[in-house]
Amino acid sequence: MAKCAKCMKQPARRECAALGERICPLCCAHLRMLVLACPEHCPYLQDARRTTGERRMGQLLAHLSAMGKESLVEVLAHMSPLLAFLERAIVEVQRQRFRDLTDDEVLAGVENAIRTYETLERGIIYEHRSESPRVHAVTESLLKALERVEKDLVERGVRIRTSEALACLRVLAESVRAIKDEREAQAYLRVAALFQPYPRSESRLIVVPE
Q1: Confidence of residue 200 (pLDDT cuts 50, 70, 90)
Q2: Are the beta carbons of 52 and 191 closer than 8 angstroms?
Q3: Where exactly are the structural domains of the chain?
């Protein structure tokens, strides 16, 4: 059997719609949506979303319970669209700016956004920054995403409270903590990216540029 078109080591058992070549199951699992801009019709992508989605929710609920943060479960249930939007803001940093962005850097960026909103809740406008441009990029992307949401809601005559945005950021931080793994630098990002489709113009490129 031919070798995988990516690792050139393992048997190529899967037809990759992104590459137009055959790859091994391991590369398929670890590169999809991070390195490979998989088309939405890919059966491996669809199957991974089903199985990972169920497992991920269980992980997060167990983590929140273990940390004594059951109060965040209600936020998770009622504000899932905003959480997904914020997660997309993180994934865009990895796809568009820092391909090797790590979960630790993501968590640091989320924590800075939390501190910024905690300060805002006290009536003080101050953006907590990081000396790391990679961490700051995550924070900045999250804050800009929240600004877009707030502007859109204001145009509809609705407002999102600072406390609500802060609660979402806290759930997001726990989502990272629940999945991140010391043995894999992008364990959380790999899962997060799985649920964020590429724009059609990008998916036509097939492989994300290095």
Answers
A1: low
A2: yes
A3: 71-202
